[in-house]
Design a protein that fits this description.
This protein is an alpha+beta fold. The protein has four helices and four strands.
């Protein structure tokens, strides 16, 4: 169930980002995705709900709640004919800025064949000189 709900949360996030569904379709689509992925016949009374939250400036999240029950064998003898279970995965996107680091080789081997100037040229922003980048 966990894997099916994880996949459901990721697919809903993808669909919302790409615009293939809108927020009013989230619950229906969550149920469709989950039912296609979760095929365990032992799980009874399975329910799936999904909620979408968009936070201004901090991205978006999809929370998918799933619950159900299974019939027990041995536990039935001590008064527990079923065992309930639930899980709640979340998918978040749009809230992390990508950070890029660049490591440059400035060892002696770079002095030959114009390697250092070529590297400096390749690393600068378009329209920005090396001197401006150093400041």
């Amino acid at each position: 169930m966990q894997a099916a709900l994880d996949s459901t949360a990721l697919m809903l996030a993808k669909d919302l980002t790409e615009g293939t569904i809108n927020t009013s379709q989230i619950s229906t689509k969550a149920d469709e995705y989950f039912r296609a992925l979760h095929t365990n016949p032992e799980a009874k009374s399975v329910t799936v709900t999904a909620s979408y939250t968009q936070t201004s400036g901090n991205g978006s999240t999809i929370l998918v709640d799933g619950s159900g029950a299974i019939d027990t064998g041995f536990m039935r003898v001590v008064g527990f004919p079923t065992m309930d279970f639930k899980t709640s995965p979340t998918s978040a996107w749009g809230n992390v800025r990508m950070r890029v680091a660049m490591e440059l080789d400035v060892t002696g081997s770079m002095k030959d064949d114009g390697k250092m100037p070529a590297m400096q040229e390749a690393c600068q922003e378009p329209g920005r000189s090396i001197e401006q980048a150093r400041k």
